[in-house]
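Q: What would this chain look like folded?
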Amino acid sequence: MPHRQLDIRYVDFSDAEEVKNFAILLFSAANEKGVFLALKQYDKAREGIKQLARDWVCRVEKCIDSMSVGDALTVIASYDIVHRIAFGIPARVDYLDKYRLKAFEAYVHGDRSVDQYILFQIVSHEIRMGNKTYFGRPLEWESLCIDRWYNNFRTGLSASSQSNYDTLHQVKALLMTDLYAFTPHQEDFKRKLIANYGHLDALAGMDCRQIEN
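A: My prediction, written as structure tokens:
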């Protein structure tokens, strides 16, 4: 086993954060051992990771319907990548959308147990991937989020007092979004964001050259 922490027996599958964190460990181990590469040679460590991923998928499917909407969204955000590790194919989109769209409806109706930034990341990704299910109200909501966050950071600094968590995720969203509709100078705008907030942990590892292109 490449990582001692990869012991699924100690994962509480009623705890969404534990489930998500184990998925992150699985992804790291799978990437390290070349699970995503088309390698024909048998490797015991790779097979062990795949089996753990299959166990993770099975356990998630058994417990996800008993989770809160917000916790189910946290878990389903990792489901597709673990499913790919386990079976070498993407998860069914209709299965993913069942929980993603339920979380969207809950959030827009006031359920703040749903993490808006996990939801935003998922909605944005599905729109970029051409998932037409998200072209209606989810697309409108995504656009409103970007509009609100851009106006808050228009000068390169937040105009409102908010937590580092909110600042971090709003800046990340702006850096990864095409802002041409808001400013013809988006590269300069993004450089200001990086200069002012690049010290935040999750931004430190981002490739700024890629963000600006």
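Residues 13 and 19 are 6 Å apart (CA to CA).
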